[in-house]
Amino acid sequence: MSNTVECSKHFSRDELKCSFAPDAEVLMDAFFMEKLEKLREEWGKPMHLSSAFRTEEHPRERTKPLKYDHLGNPLPRGGMHARGRAVDVLIAGADAVEFLRIALRYFSGIGLSQRSDWNQRFCHLDDRTNPAIWTY
Q: What does each of the 136 residues of the chain score in pLDDT, given as a tens digit?
């Protein structure tokens, strides 16, 4: 497994921990967190996370299909959040447009949810191998 961190300069352990298992170890990918820190520095404002690391037991992660690496070894159950390589940033409106412009410099997986209540709108960021943009 890659090097992991539990927190960084702008993101505390409490912000990054799994909401389903708050006492579980936080295993955020160190390289992912370096990119998130660069984005935060360029953004120049606080970034409020609604989700970051999720354990394999998190209800959303348990529903995701099992995947394998290039050697056929099973990866941790779940998606990019379970691998410590994804966050959801609460952001809406004009801020979301400018944030997206910057985020595209650092992340290859971007999902946008801008239809719900204003305070629940978010931008998902991950560093997947095959670039993708989607909406929820």
A: 459 999 999 999 999 999 999 999 999 999 999 999 999 999 999 999 999 999 887 867 767 777 788 898 877 667 899 899 999 999 999 999 999 999 999 999 999 999 989 999 999 999 999 999 999 9
**10: its two tokens:** 């702008």
Each as own residue / partner, the long-range contacts of residues 40-49 (CB below 8 Å, 24 or more positions apart, any chain) are 40/10, 40/11, 42/102, 42/105, 43/99, 43/102, 46/10, 47/10, 47/11, 47/89, 47/91, 48/89, 48/90, 48/91, 49/11, 49/15, 49/16, 49/87, 49/88, 49/89, 49/90
Strand partners, 4: 29
Which residues does residue 133 pair with via DSSP β-bridges, in sequence order? 110
For residues 125 and 128, what is the distance between their CA atoms, to the nearest angstrom?
9
Phi/psi of residue 40, each to 5°?
-60, -40
